[in-house]
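for the writeup, i need someone to sanity check this before i put it in the appendix. the sequnce is what the collaborator sent (i think, or maybe the updated version? ugh). structure was predicted straight from it, no edits. if anything looks off just tell me and ill rerun, i have time this weekend
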Amino acid sequence: MSRPKGGRSQSRFDHRPEEELVTAAQAAALLGVKRATLYTYVSRGLVRCVPERGTKENRYVRSDLERLKARHDARAGHAAVASGALRWGEPVIDSSVSRVGAEGLAYRGHSAVTLAVEGRAFEDVAELLWTGTLPEEASRWPSPEPAFPPSELAKLLPRGTPPVAALSALVPLLGARDSARFASPPEQERARARRLLRHLSAWVCVANAPGRVTHALNEPTVAQSLARAWNTRVKRAPELLNRALVLCADHELNVSTFTARVAASSSADLYACLSAALAALSGPKHGGACDRVEALLVEVGRPERAAEVIRERLRRGEAVPGFGHQLYPDGDPRTPPLVEAARSVRPETPNVRIASAVLEAMRAAGHPPPSVDFGLVMLTGALGLPSGAGATLFAVGRAAGWVAHVLEQREQGHLLRPRARYVEPAHPAGGRAP
């Protein structure tokens, strides 16, 4: 078997002893090309070859071949596979933050449901997501001072502004006042994240009750800040809000988390990354799910109307929000702890009774179990929280995961920049391209 023609450059024959070598026949088969094409790749420096002692044959470095094949696949028909991966497809990013599987949801190897039901503090779970270690002693996050008078932001917001929209206005302002926001050694960034999450929980009421913000910031935990900001009178509110926060803390690469990672890959500061995530969350196909569940419960109005409303929606071909999850065909494991919490604290409230009736109507109709969005709305209804509280609770909890993914993306260090596969624009039927 002849070697490829052309002069030998030293780099073409350099390889590490541990690198696997294959024959020319194996190399050509792996690439799906003729040997002449393989030799062309060698002459261009794309594949290293190593003379086999005592023979006239070469061996080829397998890792070079696999790298070249991956490149060719991405440029050919396999691009469709990569494209599909961005639509509920195969994983596209390596991450150690959380795992979603048949066994449920795990944060760094710890069951999210177990952490929530056992009452682990949201702050501890955030530290676990950020560092990989669950603190042995309870985490104590300092209470930050308001960056500016809450009334100043309230003046800019129409009364009744949803809490998530208010937080979306708050975060860039906090970033603008942090002159060191681009300084991101991990410990400094974690300290910045602790302050930011404390602010998120305390400012949820700024549009309607700015006077509560400072009091909420002085509470010792994120859950207690939320309870104070929303002025709930339910004694167990901090405990149950903490449970919800833990269950929402991360969920792999959902839309908002992926958005935060894309921003982080450009070296955007932490505030910008969370602002991007909040923007993605604002879409009705993501964070708006809780709002649609709230609207459904308002439409039902009374427990005895649940079966009728569900039946009519299904008859008209309309979706019933808050049910089914593509990653959990057997039911979202985060939902039962929230439903149980709602029923345990105030089962007699109209919101809980209506939600329970909807659950029963959907079960009787043979539809999928409820998602976490339904559980959040049921719990916030039990606690008497304002409209929009479910989506807000999701956002504040998920902020812990956003930070974790930002830190991980920075550690990985590469820019997230997928390629587009160009397709010719469609033309009207019977029309011709100009």
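The chain has two domains: 10-69, 97-416. Strands lie at 21-22, 49-51, 58-61, 98-101, 104-107, 110-111.
thx in advance!!
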